[in-house]
Here is the input.
Amino acid sequence: MSCRLYLDGKVLGTKQEINLASNAEQLFIGAFHQDNLFFKGKIDELRIWQSARNQQEITENMHLTAYSKTANPLAYYQFNQSSGNTLVDVAASADAAVHGDPTFASSNVNVGGTGSSQTISNIAAPGTHDFTNAKLKMEFTSIADTSGFTISYQTFKPNTTDGVGFLTNAVFNNPTWTVIQDSNAAFSANLTFTFPAGTFSSLVPFSYRLYHRDIGSDGPWSLLVVGASSVTSTKIAFDGVGVAGQFMVAKE
Here is the structure.
């Protein structure tokens, strides 16, 4: 069999001809049990599946938890405990023992329970693609090479709104969106976000701002676009976006 390593939804590397023998040994996560060596870092949202997940299945659900609870994983640990020596398996009944005296910390990971996702593959030329399930339309004005995009519509608040300008009088932080691109090809697109009915009472496009941060970031947001190109009570559009990542709208 082959093994693929993903980082932020992109294939980082592939290893062919991996031989995995069946055995009855204990499974250790974050440790090499033979030498009692422990992972020096943070772990959150660990899912173990009965079959290999393809790239679309990974990207469409990596920021949403509800699907993974019901999709028949072998085990699913959310690491939501604040203390103790047991990790609860929220999908099955394979609770895990905690070893090595780890420290429990608050999670700022870009993941939550509710929302929806959609993938469109093989986008190779300028044109408009409507991610209806994810409530985002992307009008590509340029794209350097064939790419696939996964959009997650996230109906939960991010961990912070730090970085939003001090003149801001409204932050629309529920919903937010995460855009994943499966390649590094340069692109430029006009984005139209669909919010719940009646979200925007002011229909002055220039008063709105689009903020951005990287896919895996839990830090402050950065101003990406000043002024929407159009706005209705439910839809808002921003032109000239050339990055994937997390997106949030605010108003000054």
In short: Helices lie at 55-61, 66-70. DSSP finds two helices and 19 strands in the chain.
